[in-house]
């Protein structure tokens, strides 16, 4: 995959936004905890927006790259906690993979397919990851496993929706105001 300077700059700016969003929301207590007792470790944030925007503008590899930057940023900010950054990165990367599949496989209704598959893949992958953490004893779920799985699934649907919808709204605004940027980025991402 050959990347020109303009594309690389765009990817780096979006990766920097991931870092800024993560640090700002953490530093200023802007992360919104999931309002269910016992699940407040799950927090809503905006780091997924530039990741989805990176996918929509530049393709799968840049979307994966910005997901990896999210993991690194959280690891640097909280080096004693390796599980949370990996789970955040896995959640965002699984959303990117699902959206990519929806955009590539659907001939009609590409956006709804991308949304549906993005959220579905995120929920399935994160459910498997949470069950693995429970099995390894790294996550305690309370009394009922089924309720835990359902509630974490609901969290992932909401967080995935925030990332996808906000990322797409910004993409649509850029497409409307700077169509040459979208056409150029789309042509490059389809060639790779």
Structural description of this entry:
The protein is mainly alpha-helical. The chain has one domain (5-191): Arp2/3 complex 21 kDa subunit ARPC3. Helices cover 77% and strands 2% of the residues. The chain is globular. The N and C termini lie close together (6 Å).
Provide tags for this entry.
mainly alpha, 2% strand, 2 strands, 7 helices, Arp2/3 complex 21 kDa subunit ARPC3, globular, 192 residues, 77% helix
Helices and strands in order:
Layout: H1 5-27, E1 32-33, E2 43-44, H2 48-58, H3 60-77, H4 83-105, H5 110-135, H6 145-177, H7 179-191
Antiparallel strand pairs: 1-2
Structure summary:
With 192 residues, this protein is mainly α.
**Span between termini:** 6 Å
| Rg measurement, Å | 17 Å
CATH topology: Arp2/3 complex 21 kDa subunit ARPC3
Share of β-strand residues:
under 5%
User: Could you estimate the helical fraction of the residues in percent?
Assistant: over 70%
* Sheet of most strands: 2 strands, antiparallel
> What is the strand arrangement across the widest sheet?
1-2
What count of helical segments does DSSP give? 7
Structural class: mainly alpha
Strand segment count: 2
Known CATH architecture: Orthogonal Bundle
Order of helices and strands: HEEHHHHHH
Shape estimate = globular
For the record, the count of structural domains works out to: 1
Spans of at least 5 consecutive residues whose pLDDT stays below 50 are none
User: Given this structure, which CATH class is correct?
Assistant: Mainly Alpha
